[in-house]
Amino acid sequence: MSLFNRNDKPGPVASPPAPAPTPAPKPAEPPVTAAAAAAKPIPTPTKAGASMASVISKALKITGELESTEDIQIDGQIEGDVRGVGVKIGQNAKVKGTVYGDEVELAGTVEGRIESKKVVLAATARMTGDISHQEIKIETGAYISGTLKPELGKSEAKPAVKPMAAPAPPPASGTTSNVSPLSPTGTSGTAHH
What is the 3-state secondary structure (H, E, C) of 75-136? Predict the structure, then answer.
């Protein structure tokens, strides 16, 4: 009878499992000083919560309302009202309807109305209709046929019920007043700048 050792057997031989490699020790990081922290550039976002504008390309024609809680860039055609935070209407774009926004930049054509706090009409702008605004910039060459109403936002400040005014005391003898009441009225007509 003969005794065999496992290693004497022909065939594949299983090797014992290799020990797990031990990780190399990390070099100690120096403590961060206030001067070192100040020297490191800190990435800053360009605009808090900034996002890209929704784009209506020149290949699109939309019939109906367009509404966004962000900015809108229009390069195509819209037949209907447009609402956005910032609305940019490109040079070849056309909107038939009312454009609402905090800021509206028009380089194309609008047939309708614009209601915005800030309006910018580029030299290529063609506006047919009324513009209600707080602030407006019109470049030379822009075409406007309508009424400019610098009253947007002022109606919100007016009270619902007008308080009764106390009668003014009569002027003292020998003095006169040259103050005349002015009413805020818009400009109307066709303007070519």
Answer: CCEEECCEECCEEEECCCCEEEEEEEEEEEEECCEEEEEEEEEEEEECCCCEEECCEECCEE
Q: φ, ψ for residue 35 (rounded to 5)?
A: -65, -40
- Cβ pair 85, 100 in contact under 8 A: no
Q: What would the pLDDT profile of 153-182 be if each residue is shown by its tens digit?
A: 665 444 444 445 555 555 554 444 444 444
Chain segment 52-77, per-residue pLDDT in tens: 789 999 999 999 999 999 999 999 99
Rounded Cα distance, 27 and 71, in Å:
50
pTM of the model: 0.55
| 116, 152 contact by CB (below 8 A) | yes
